[in-house]
Description:
By secondary structure, the chain is an alpha+beta fold. The protein has a domain at 52-97 and 186-285. It has helices at 2-62, 105-114, 119-133, 167-173, 193-200, 204-216, and strands at residues 74-82, 85-93, 98-99, 177-178, 245-253, 259-268, 278-285. Helix 2 (105-114) packs across helix 3 and helix 2 (105-114) packs across helix 5 (193-200). It is extended, with a radius of gyration of 27 Å. 38% of the residues are buried.
Amino acid sequence: MIRRERGAALLLVLWVTVLLVALLAGIAATARSQSEAALYGSERVRARYAAEAGVAQAVQGLRAPDVAHRWVPDGRAYAFDFDAARVTVRITDVGGLVDLNAADGTVLTRLFEAAGVDAGRAQALSAAIQDRRGGRTPVRGVAMPSVPGVMPFRAREELARVPGMDQAIYDKVAGAVTVFSGRNFPDASYAGPLALAALQGRGLAEAEAEVQARRARPAMRGAGNGGAPGMVLNGGLVAGFGGVVERVRSEAVMPDGTRVGIDATLRLALAGNDWRPYKVLGWRVDSLDPPQTP
Length: 294
């Protein structure tokens, strides 16, 4: 009887021990998870501040009094270190983007074709954009039937809701479009590969090679890219190179791999207005463009 009671007691102790070990393991795992989450949150906050520093540095670079040190808004990369983060900033003058409210039918069609869309669907998407904003323009000299417009685009994200658009196509062209330039064709001096291909009707690979060559050489103030269609001699504009509305994409990467990106559209103030050097027209966090080069 005593042995049986001792055996039952031993079994009970073993079960209690197993339960305590499991409980302690669960508590340890939860604590570790919470610690990792707190560390990730802390690194994410640091990365966000570093990305915001990239935007501030971009404004300073665009307004630098020394032309030799002025940043060029043609998509070339500028990198620096900030609080252990590696910050990479790319600035694109909106004049180098395809304006959804102003671009003609041919430019819009070529944009989608350069993104890999077949000709028929590219024309249909071009027509849908023009119908949305009101009226169609000829495509390659051929008049297009029109339907009454609804309203102009107020943000490039509205392109995703155009009939016939899907996420894959939107992801490819989102970085190459704007609603802020008011131009019916992009400026080749600042255009990325997709916008340049849409402007000149050339293949994407050829446009990419030209853009990479342009970004690799020093820029001259007010100079275009040698007479390409759409070139604008910008003269002494207050932003230095380009116009007064710039799209800034700043990405900060922490040593542990935490990444935060800011995609901002800024209207630069007139020279001498240092107390408010820019106005924010658009600001998105963690919404970097897909890997495709715009």
